[in-house]
Amino acid sequence: MAKIKHNNFIDTVDEVIAGAKKEGVLHLYAEDQILNGRTLQIKGKKMFHFGTTGYLGLEQDNRLKEAAITAIQKYGTQFPLSKTYISNPLYSELESKIEAMYGIPPIITKNSTLGHLAVIPTVVRDEDGVILDHQVHWSVQNACQLLKIRGIPVEMIRHNNLNMLEDKIKYLATRCKKIWYMADGVYSMFGDFAPIPDLMELCKKYPQLQLYFDDVHGMSWRGKNGTGYVLDVLKSLPDNVLLFGTLSKTFGASGATLLCTDNRLREKIKNFGGPLTFSAQLEPASVAAAIASANIHLSPEIISLQCDLSEKIEYFKSLLEKTTLPMIALNNSPVFFLGTAMPLTAYKMVQRLFKEGFYVNPAIYPAVPIKNTGIRITLSRHNQKEEIKALVEAMEYHFPIALEESGNSQHKVNKAFGIVETISTVGNLEPKKNLVLQYEVSIEKINKQNWNELLGKQSTFDWDGLCFLENAFINPNYPENNWDFHYYIIKDKKGIPVLATFFTYGLWKDDMLASESISKQLEEKRKQNPLYLTSKVLGMGSLFTEGNHCYINKTHPLAEEAIMLLLEQVETLYHQLNADMLVLRDFEEDEQLNHIFHNQGFLKINMPETCIIQNAIWNTIEEYSTSLSHRSRKHFLKEVLPLEQAFDIVIKNQLTNEELEQAYKLYLNVKNINHAINTFTYPIEVFQKMESNPQWEFILLYLKNKEKEQSVNPLIGILFCYKNTAHTYVPALIGMDYSYAKEFQLYRQLLFQGIKRARELNLNKIDFGVSATFEKRKLGATIIPKVAYIQARDNFSMELMGTLQNEDKTL
């Protein structure tokens, strides 16, 4: 079967960033003739700068500027030679200054991203393993991609989850010599910290454990000599800890620095650490600026600078604590995060703060989960108390307005971030006065004719099909096939339907649409834990169905209002069920829906294409073949039609117990080999319930036994087919004996028999579902691209699956 085209992560990110850019909150340009650190001018508007990562403001210190100017005048703009050969005249002094700060000889790198690429593949040996905090900086995760090529296991844990970390350590302990845990000291979005004391206790318990910290956001504003948050907690660097600091951001210059106590390892990194060998070295101006900054860090002045910033942090916190603003991880770092949950709220809030004269950073996917969108606010010594106070007042005033403008509420924000509400902040939105909502948990509560007029003629979700699904997927003994159903019909006051849809709640495999290689690896792990990496999902439609699960009367003047009402209702249900993911599927590309769903906190992803045959009206096989393209017709006449004679073809409404057992084995053959759409295996009870439903029938292919060696012709293929409202034929599932598949073109033959049967029944549409689009197109199917919109509580599963590419060692 042809491989399914899976969603491209880059396309998803591109669309999110493009949306934020369109709202005027990203990809901006500062217009200042002179920068002072306190203000920025953007589009002619002067704003107070609350978006810097230069927390101590050293990038504007005259001593650093003068040192850089002098270095350019003396040594030029760069020293264009690999540092492996020779370093520029200032490097030796910088290294001695950094050694004086830390008490350890450093390795200086061009920046932290290149530094990780130099260090991680060198220090992590083939016999080692790696565990990543799923919020560790992208540069660390990216460097670990090189490890997977070598077969080194790269695992991932949820953010700061020490129980999960210990489980992963135990898992790797018998197969790895060293186990590296990689984390940030201070996390760049929420400003929270790594649990360093607890990690050191784990190191005592598991001597294999090595710690690798990226502390670039903890530098300078914290610790003795400004050596950062991690070293401030540890006091001295243990032998099993590698520490990355920065010479940029708060340090005020450029570059990064690695500290480790192992002299031999340090020399090995310097001798061949990828970018250290093959990339350019720091420019003389940057080295000189870093020397000037190091002099400040080695003087008593650093303490007064740290205290000045700390005082402003505490002042900002004291003002925020008097508000009801949903601030996340309110601690003593200079990084603050205002939760908005929905991107549209963040855009509105940023726009309002811009107009008030405050520059802040929107925090959007993939830096944070799409439903954990917010605004990152950073403090520096440049900020004065009067503008800090004014910012809080502006935030407090504009936040409720931004919520209202975007159809949001603080209750929703609190839910999205798991904030416990001490007082009621529900503040429900105004009821939709022009709309009437019908919500049911069984299709039997909904008028059959009305439902079929809106959503009939598609897949297996006409009224009768949903009766079957409700009956078939009540499986308490199989939690993965035990679903709840939720139906929504929204009408105007005159009773005219505006929107209708249904959702199911159940377990999904997180890799359902991942690449086959990832699914194969996860299926190995599921042999021990069948529910490994699965999520509770509230999803439009069901895993059994495909097609347009949502009727929207787009010409109705209340269409958008009805969509917003649906989203409000399903989000409430999503939180009531404590689901992990909310999925809206399967839509054709629509710019208006893209805009609505993105602004409400959904990511658009590409779904597998669906295949249909429409208006299949022909009277003879010859007429059918002439409806195909020239190339497909040639293929059909040569490889499909002649082989039909090899089979006895039987169509039945019911199967004997023996036939059902054989049919189920054939279904399992296909299910077990096909990971392109990785869903759970349906239990045999689902197939037994097909037999008792008059809408189902079975097309069985028996291979004729020419030599008469067997008394009974073997069953080698079957289609499980649903008849939808005297209109649509749905070959929903397939079963095959692969030992005959190639010789007899079995898959194509089954598709053809489904086409023939639909014509016999005078059903003019065939829903062929997803996958194998190449084969279905050859037999006349039209291919329709589809998209879905998703919300997840965090990015963990997606990032974890990213660690599985090319991983073989742990399996």
Structure description:
There is one protein chain. The protein is an alpha+beta fold and 811 residues long. The chain folds into four domains: 31-55 and 303-387, Aspartate Aminotransferase, domain 1 (Alpha-Beta Complex), CATH 3.90.1150; 62-299, Aspartate Aminotransferase, domain 2; 435-607 and 790-801, 3-Layer(aba) Sandwich (Aminopeptidase); 611-786, Aminopeptidase (3-Layer(aba) Sandwich). The protein has 27 helices and 27 strands. Strands 15, 16, 17, 18, 19, 20, 21, 22, 23, 24, 25, 26 and 27 form a 13-stranded mixed sheet that branches. A seven-stranded mixed sheet has the order 3-9-8-7-6-4-5, with helices on both faces. A four-stranded antiparallel sheet has the order 10-11-14-13. Strand 10 (327-328) and strand 11 (335-341) form a beta hairpin. Helix 3 packs parallel to helix 11. It is globular. The relative contact order is 0.10. Residues 1-6, 424-430 and 806-811 have low confidence and may be disordered. It comes from Flavobacterium omnivorum. One of its GO terms (molecular function) is transferase activity.
